[in-house]
Design a protein that fits this description.
single chain; 5 helices; about 80% helix; about 0% strand; globular; disordered N terminus
Length: about 120
Amino acid sequence: MLFGRSVAAALALFVCGSATAAELPTNDYPTVSRADYVFACMQVNGQSRETLFKCSCSIDKIAELIPFKDYEEAETIMSVIQKGGESVAALRYKPLQDKVNRLKKAQVEAEIRCF
């Protein structure tokens, strides 16, 4: 009888857990990407516990606003532009700049909400 109750309890937790998980947004940002963002954010804004929370909040808000694929593409474009060189001219193409602008808008929104 105890085994039956344990199975019923486990099944109830699984069903309740599934309902909760279905309500959460998809986390498609890899942990290392989130950690890289927080690390860079803390380098710029100070290395305190309060800044850690603000920077963590910031990447969470960005993740709510744009999918990881778009984030990754915009970060790559910005990185190449920052390095300079002949390849930069091709990245000034309007659709690519729109991706960068979308990320920058998400960053501003995150900063407003978290800082």
